[in-house]
Design brief:
With 441 residues, the protein is of the alpha/beta class. The chain folds into three domains: 309 residues, Metallo-dependent phosphatases (Purple Acid Phosphatase, chain A, domain 2, 4-Layer Sandwich); 37 residues, no CATH class; 81 residues, Arc Repressor Mutant, subunit A (Orthogonal Bundle). The strands form four sheets. It has a six-stranded mixed sheet. β13 and β14 form a beta hairpin. The radius of gyration is 25 Å and the shape is globular. It binds fe (ii) ion (FE2). The site of fe (ii) ion has 7 residues, from loops.
Amino acid sequence: MSNLPQFLILQIGDIHFPQMSSKLEADIKDLRFPSGTLNNTVPNPFLSAIRKIQEICDQKPDAIIFCGDLTTGGNLPRHNLEGYKECVNYLCKALKFGPGGKWSKDQVQVVPANHDVVREFCHTDGNNWQEKFAPLVQAWTAVGFPVLSAEAIRKVQLSANGLSLQFYAANSCVGCGVTREYFAPQIRDELENIIKKKKEEHSDDVSVIVNEVLDTPAFDSNAIEIMADEIKSLKADILPVVVAHHNLLPQATVRVALYTELLNAGHVRTHLTNCERLVLYCHGHIHDNPIEIIQNVEDKLGRILCISAPCIIEGFNTIRIESSLANAPLGCVITCYVKTRACDFQPKACRLIRIHTKEWRSHCDPKTHQLINILNPKRIEAENFACLVKRAFKDLQMDAVNVRLRLLEAEWLGAVELSNHRDLQTGEALEDFNRCYIRRI
Ligand SMILES: [Fe+2]
C-alpha cells in the first residue's frame, strides 16, 4: 500500500433530463438545419460528461450520489413523470444500476428536488407531504433499484478500505409544489367562477389570481433534529455525509424571486454546526460548484463542508476521503471535473480540506509523532529525510513506504508541510516521493 486508505465518492448535480441531453455545443443560427446531421456533427456535452463518469465508474468508486433535479418537467403545467422515468432508465443503462448491475443499492444515494416534484400530487395545505414523492420512489422501484425514499431521510452506512461513512439522503423539498391560497375556499371558488365568466376568452389560467404555487424548499425540522443528534453520537472514526438538493447558503448569483432559499436553512446550520465534528453537506440546485465551510465560532470542532456539484453539462465532482493508518478519516480531496473548450471533462483543480483541527495531533500514532519530532522547520528533501529516518529508527523497521504514509498522515493533521507530492489537478499523491520537500510546521 503506497497511499493512505481511501473512500471515493462521485457527486453528480442537476441532470434535467431530457432537455440537457439534447443541448449541443454550437452557436445554432439556422434553426431549420436537419437535426440528424446536427446530432452527428456537433459535440454533445451531456454524452461527453456521461462518458467521463463511466470512465471514473470503471475505477469503482465506493459511492455515487445524485443531488436531484433528474428532470425538469415535474414542475411544469400539464407535466407528467415521463422525464423522471426516462432519466432513471437512462442512468440504469448507462451506469449499470439495477438487478445484476455494478452497484449495490446502498452505494447509490438519490434525493428529490424541486423540478422532480409532480405538482398534481401536492396537497394545498402541505399536509401528508410524503405523498407527492411516491411517484418518484415508484420510478426507482419499477427498475428494481429502490434507492429513493419518500421519508424525510434515508440512512445508509458504507465502509471501504476500513473507512466508514454514514450517509443521510435528506429531502429538502417539503414545501415544493404547495399552493398558497389568497382567500377562504368559499370566496375563492366564487371569485374564480366570476373571473372565469368575465375573462372566458382572454385568460389561460385564472387560478393565478386566487392562489399561487410555491416552490419553497424546506426540510422536515424534526427529522433534521433527530439526524443531528445521531451525528453527534456517531463514533469519531465515522464520517457523516448529508446529501440534499438545496444549498444552505444563498447562491452567488443574485436570485430575485419569492421563497427560493431553504426556508429552514438556519435551523439546519445551527444543528449541524453543533455536532462537534465536520459534516459533509453535498448538494446541487444552483448549477455552480462552490465549496464553502460554515462554522460557528462558539464550537470550533463543528463545521459544515458544503460541496456543490454543477449541472451535469458543466461538470461534476469526486470527493476522496483519506484516512489514517488506524482508519480515522483525516481529510477530503475534492476534485472538480469541468467541461473544456474541446467539450470533454477534465479535472480542473482539487481542494484539500482537513477533517480535524490541529488539536487532533495529540491523537496521532506514537510512531508518526516520533517522525514529526526528528523534523525541523527548515525544508528538507525527502531523500535526505529518508537517511535521517534510517539513523533515528534503526530498531523500529520504518521502511520507505511506512515513512511516506506517516508523513501523509502528519500532513493532514497539520503537523508537516509537504510540497510537490500531489498532482495539482487530481490531488492524487505522486508515486515519486523523493521529489518532495518536507517541513515541520
Ligand atoms: Fe433545483
